[in-house]
Amino acid sequence: MSNLESLPAEVGLPVETGTAPCAELLEGRDVPLGRYTVVRRSLPNKTRRTVGAWCFLDHFGPEDITGGPGMRVPPHPHIGLQTVTWLLGGEVRHRDSLGSDQLIRPGQLNIMTAGRGIAHSENSPTEHPPLLHGLQLWVALPDGSRHIDPSFQHLPDLPVVETGGARVTVAVGELGGASSPAVVHSELLGADLTLTAGASATLGVRHDFEHAVVVTEGTVSVEGVPVSPGSLLYLGALRDTLRFETDGEARCFLLGGVPFEEELVMWWNFVARSHEEIVEARTAWMAADTSRFIPVPGGEDPLPAPALPTTRLLPRPRYRHS
């Protein structure tokens, strides 16, 4: 999925509060995605840039797209990241410059590694279910992997763990003895929790990971803090367990990872380390340079890049030092 903001800006960072356990509720903001879809963006946030290597989180829907086109994201480029698509309802067709043409449905995972450069489009099929609902996430690739060749994985079957009224699907990484086959390049966790009414589940988590939770349906109490759709609860690191409770049926997505210490330049659909890298990638995209970005099959007009800001883009850490 693309960042379609016409004036994408660098995001301010918080004064660091340490990596100890905490409960920081971050409000998302509404961002138009093309002409037809509005998403709630939780990362990057004005008070936090990353959770582990997770650097971007959009929650879209639930939206009734009966009689409408649904998602329409034309071909656009990425560098230096992985996109992770997780559907809760509906269908999305992914096409990319590698020739991948894949329909994704709920419970399946699409993970696209941009590396040195890839382009893709995401659209609802012409004949589509009435509801569209899901998450789009990005993972910042570490320096040793960010220039690798692009690749794409579609994973229709993922491991599931059940405990305390929670059904946990491990999309990325390891949890509860289950391991996802998704290929990632840093120590990372992404898991979907479906909770029955009255559920009370405690999950063991890695002590060295920082964690955050986004609720997609209902209300979930995480470590005693109630969370509803539209917010991201950042939980810090140095925890061994996380407790999830709910009165009614609910659903949430758990993010985790070793704190990502590399400084990033994030602008539009690019994750880089310098202003020059961003300029180079934008120039290649606008020039239709096929040595960097091969066209996406299908004949759709590509999305033009917005104008660069008038000031130099600077590398940013995951937090602002006080």
From TrEMBL:
Gene3D superfamilies: Jelly Rolls. Residues 191-287 form the Pirin C-terminal domain. InterPro entries: Pirin, Pirin_C_dom, Pirin_N_dom, RmlC-like_jellyroll, RmlC_Cupin_sf. SUPFAM superfamilies: RmlC-like cupins. Residues 296-322 are annotated as: Disordered. Residues 39-139 form the Pirin N-terminal domain. It comes from the Bacteria. Belongs to the pirin family. This is Pirin family protein.
